[in-house]
């Protein structure tokens, strides 16, 4: 019976983590470049139950041999193994703002490949992002909304000295008669990236290899790929599953209470 407690409780914890992930997705439905988290739920190892009994056939010494009769499998609960971002392309929204940049995916040689802007976080550490909602700081550098710098192909900061610059579809930024290539990085397996907050990722990335097609649109933003309606539906499903596990847990608690207070009572 105690195993039933753990099984129901593990189901409640798994649904709680799903609720948290879905709530975060909905909260970021309007965040440019945000990629929805998907919960990977797995079951604990299944146990095989056997009935211990004895054979009806007598052995030479007059004893009966022990035998096992399979009863069936017993699942020991579920857990959320990891949160996996969905890197599907979000819709492109025209803003007309020259500092807004959007990456449009092309053909990738790897099934889970993806492209990102090379940026730094507020602490100056190299990071990746799909959020092209950039701006110009007081020193004239192109920066992220969190105060990090947008990098060029060589890993240097990009100074525009204002908003009068042009970005071509191949990622070439032209300003004051000079041109620099935006730092666009390719990740062969986006499943290996780690979310580090503020719409930033860290992981292994490389310069765009041959055969990778990507388009940069100036004055546009990639919208979040969160489907708010589907997320709300999944939240309701997770809540109902949580409630069902809660009822099972209460039933086990009631049965345990009867076993302690009634079955074990000695009548005088």
TrEMBL record:
Its main location: other. Residues 5-35 form the Flagellar basal body rod protein N-terminal domain. Belongs to the flagella basal body rod proteins family. Transmembrane segments: none annotated. Residues 112-175 form the Flagellar hook protein FlgE/F/G-like D1 domain. It is found in: Bacterial flagellum basal body. Keywords: Bacterial flagellum, Cell projection, Cilium, Flagellum. This is Flagellar hook-basal body protein. The keyword Cell cycle does not apply.
